[in-house]
Amino acid sequence: MALTATPNSGDCADEVEVSLPRARRGEKLALAAITATFVSLVAFWAALAPMFDAPDENNHFNSAVRLIDGGAWPEPGEAQVADWILIASEQAGMPATERSTVSELRELHPGYSGIDQMTQHPPVYYAYIAAVLTAIDYDDMRVDEAVLAARLAGLIFVLPLPLAAWDSVRRLTRSPRAGLVAAASLLAVPQLAHIMGSVSNDSMAIGFSALVIWLGIRIMTGDTSWITTGGIGLALAFVLTSKGTALPLVAFVAVVVLFWPRVLSLRQRLWRTVAAMAIGGIGGAWWLRNLIVSGVIQPNSTLYDTLPWSEGTGPSVLEFSEYVWSGLSRSFWGNFGWLAHPMPEAVTSLLTVVCFAVIAGYAYRRSNARVPALVLTVTVLVLLVALLSRTWSGYARTHLPAGLQGRYFFVVIIALIALSAIAWRNLVPVAERTRACYLLLTGFALVAILGVYIEWRYIYDGFSDVLVRSPIGAWGFGFIGLAAAGFGVLAFALTVVQVRAANNALAAAEVVSRPSDELGPGVGDGDGDSATARTPTEPASVDAADACAGADDMTYPDSGTVVLDDAAVTSEGDTRTP
Predict the structure, then answer these.
(1) Parallel, antiparallel, or unpaired: how do β-strands 341-342 and 335-336 relate?
(2) What is the reported pTM?
(3) 76, 123, 148, 573: which is deepest, by most CB within 10 A?
(4) Under 8 Å between Cβ of 31 and 132
(5) Helix-strand-coil split of the chain, %, nearest 5
(6) In whole angstroms, how far apart are CA 123 and each of 253, 312, 389, 487?
(7) For residue 75, what pLDDT band results from cuts at 50, 70 and 90?
């Protein structure tokens, strides 16, 4: 297996380019099973949550319907919600067979009321949903069936997430098993599955932002392909046509393509930066238009009236901080419906504190991944500052902390997973990593199950109730549920097998690299056993490394040591066991 390396240069080390161990059949099967689990779990959430029982879902659906009806895309604050969509929300508690069709509700309730604030976003996602609804002739369907179809249309945006998490972490940590655990960690955020399984432009923003960050990580870890450069520009263009929360990714792409890969000359990187930003700029036309027309990148919502503060009072930083903590942490992990079905605060607070503590304490230790980790962190912080600035302005104007929702950080979910993986890898000793993987996988499964249970408990009165109210009936709901559970068990088993294989590979590498006098008489002692003997300075063979693919510890963070599968080779030529 080929190996190339760029030596470290102090604390600001260039990327170390290493030929990763080939993703073998077992690893690919485990990733496929994790992907199937996540996709089927999102589909299950789409069938589980009552129609329009997700943040702003009726408005998102309404905007797609307006495009079908030829209503164009009014200025923010001018669009209204169709009365029949508001009435349809009231039928969510009825048995599915008793609900009205779209055409029936249109005829009975032809008017409009309220404000649909979705026109503050670009119309691309809504045009996609409108095309899907038109293709299935939704007018003749029950409303809940049409909503479910629109929800399932978003599954296309779910597909990239497990791949992006797996490959990003695999490249940053040089660890195949860390990559699989990272992909599985998506299950530990039930709110992500809930939002991805609803009618929302969040799903498009999350899917394409995952591609942007993944391709950025590939570039930071040595990918010199023009396809990757063009791909990140194209992904940026699409994500910019979805939602304003993705705007911090513009700076991310510019910095990554300008400074990496370091094996390219500055002139080459400049040309690539111009190309990527030119492609991405196509999607930025909407925001440029807002600046020209409105003087702001994204106009404020007009849902809430300005409310003056009484004399002697004013916006409170302390009160706002409490809103920030409770609002962001709870609605990141799980606060379902219209933020009305929360997971236990003890659980969400514990998960938030642990993640923050581990990342802050261990993600930035001196290693080849430290500079990429800092870039990813700055990207997250830029999004945080932008969100807090916007919501503080709204809080000062209306007394309401509207917009403090953890789901807005799902556009950087791959960055957060990558930072967590780097941190946990630095924290957990090599000898304990297999056990840690088992515990994390078990924890992910438990949190995913808890999320489903919380939504079930808040919405339904027993198992028979959900079967009666499900838009796809008892058989359809049961099929999706069994598929999610079955794929989950398969993914858990296949991932455990790969983690165990990595552990065995490390043990094998330790044996073949141990000096003969430590192995005892008859093993490499010069009595005809030279084929199995290893001297302290002789690297383990590539064939042996390939035979136990999936070994961990691909880099030594403090020494510039490069690890080839199981064997760690320094520039001086000695071999150390991970």
Answers:
(1) antiparallel
(2) 0.85
(3) 148
(4) no
(5) 65, 5, 30
(6) 23, 43, 25, 35
(7) confident
